[in-house]
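Researcher: We plan to redesign the surface later, but first we want a full-length starting point. Tokens attached.
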């Protein structure tokens, strides 16, 4: 989806535009659930719009999964994927691979009696 908006800093207003994804999953998962997930949007080197939603561990059946790749707005379902233990890459069964370099880290640990989240 093409988001747009503006930001004002020190009295100067600038227009913002880009690419974005919206996750609308209801999230009715088993009590103990662990998954890895990557979603992003941007442009290919030749300028086409690209977006992806890749998941391992939940809603990841061989077909009919949450996995989706959009190229210029046309969706397709990629092959099942595996995330590397350090989350530096995602590789699909057909050999396609996304690689990442971290530029920030967000970590949160919640402990509320019987409920916890890492």
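Model: Full-length starting sequence:
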């Amino acid at each position: 989806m093409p988001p747009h908006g503006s930001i004002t800093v020190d009295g100067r207003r600038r227009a913002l535009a880009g690419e974005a994804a919206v996750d609308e999953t209801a999230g009715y998962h088993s009590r103990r659930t662990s998954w890895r997930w990557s979603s992003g949007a941007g442009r290919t080197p030749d300028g086409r719009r690209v977006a992806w939603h890749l998941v391992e561990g939940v809603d990841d059946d061989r077909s009919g999964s949450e996995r989706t790749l959009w190229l210029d707005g046309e969706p397709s379902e990629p092959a099942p994927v595996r995330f590397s233990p350090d989350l530096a890459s995602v590789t699909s069964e057909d050999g396609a691979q996304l690689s990442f370099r971290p530029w920030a880290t967000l970590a949160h640990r919640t402990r509320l009696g019987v409920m916890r989240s890492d």
